[in-house]
Amino acid sequence: MSNQEWVTLGKAPGPAVEGSAAEGPGAEGAGVADCCPGLLSAPLDPEQAETLAKVFKALGDPVRLRLLSMIASRAGGEVCVCDLTPAFDLSQPTISHHLKLLREAGLIASERRGTWVYYRLLPQATDRLAGILTRPAGAPLPGTACASATVSAGAGE
Questions:
Q1: Do residues 111 and 103 make contact, with C-beta atoms less than 8 angstroms apart?
Q2: pLDDT tens digit string along 118-154?
Q3: What is the 3-state secondary structure (H, E, C) of the chain?
């Protein structure tokens, strides 16, 4: 993901905070609530919507969703492409293409070691998505306060 796309998701690019588990662009260790407005708190601007659409498009394919799940749930935090390919009835170039799209969406990172490429989840990206999709605890959905007031007002008639 480019630095502009990280900024669009609500984080300025920069180094990780020492001792933080975060990695990659914009991972300063601040909480998701500190960096990312939720969909329910403010409308997305066109840039944010386009960036998020790329991520959701990457997650919208069942093969890519399974690949992400296999990478994220792997003991040790990373997996060789040689261990991913046999799990699918797809060619190796097709698996590589799906992994490339996940990488371009900023969900995974890769590292070449000799012949093989190893993949790992970028947890700050999934944390941001969770923060964007989560409403604050106890907060009503927008418009529900007005709707319940209207129902209450009509009940006494």
A1: no
A2: 999 999 999 989 888 887 776 666 666 544 444 555 5
A3: CCHHHHHHCCCCCCCCCCCCCCCCCCCCCCCHHHHCCCCCCCCCCHHHHHHHHHHHHHHCCHHHHHHHHHHHCCCCCEEEHHHHHHHCCCCHHHHHHHHHHHHHCCCEEEEEECCEEEEEECHHHHHHHHHHHCCCCCCCCCCHHHHHHHHHHHHCC
Give the C-alpha separation, 29 to 19, whole Å.
9
Alpha-carbon span 123 to 96, nearest angstrom? 21
Number of Cβ within 10 Å of residue 145's Cβ equals 10
